[in-house]
Amino acid sequence: MSELSKRVAVAVVAIPIVLGLAYLGGWFLAVPLSAFAGWGAHESYRLAHAKGIRPVEWVGVPAAAMFVLLGAWRPTFAGYAPFGLAVIIGVSLLAALEAMRTRGPDGDPLPTVAVTVFGAIYSGLALTFIPFLLALPGARAWTALDADPVAPLLVVALPLAATWIGDASAYFAGTTWGKGRARLAPTISPNKSWVGFWASLAGGAATGVAWLFIVQGRLPVLADAGPVPFAVIGALLGLAAVIGDLLESLFKREAGVKDSGSFFPGHGGVLDRIDSLVLTIPASYGLLILVVYLR
Which of 125, 154, 127, 126 is nearest to 29 (CA)? Predict the structure, then answer.
């Protein structure tokens, strides 16, 4: 299967599932999302194993899932922060104690603890921002109606659409005009070009403006900001998507593997599918709050 076919297949299957679960919200979303986060942590630890580092999976995998479950329970940043911080402290202490108990000074205790904590945060804390995004319209009175069940879904759709459309724009532009041109990061991902990079930003910017026109009737507070800020937001999400993709490519190249796992047969692992989203989802949360504050 070609790379284009893989991208189309993933989008066709993933978009309805993600949007359907987001519409249901609550624990219907949180439980599968937490399992996804835990498996993502497992894959990051698999990459570390390839370099001889043995993270404490029994600590990190549940912590990644716990981040998401707590986010569904306390879906505002202020309400979540004390519990999220407690998970970070807990996973750090447990990983350190386990490293002392079983690894000793010659068993790479520092990389063990560092990778254990990072793996949990990398997938778990990032996906926690999905419940945060779903709660934003109601918590901050952004909607035109007192209760609008579609508005949260539209907010989550922004980073998803900007990521996937930006990625598709980068792929088509890169394969069409980027061959033989300057490489973006040749030692990390040799196939990525600067042409594709700028196309990702342009695709993200166009998505941001199109998204605003679609949602302006349901989210008038955001519409008041105008199209220019949302073009900037879309471009920044396109940038975040590229960085997220390159970051995971860096980890895989260090480990000497093509895919992070085989969770999706023929399509790679969980991290291969959410590599960009781990940055675009949290970034969209902060950017939406900022644009309303500055409007």
Answer: 127
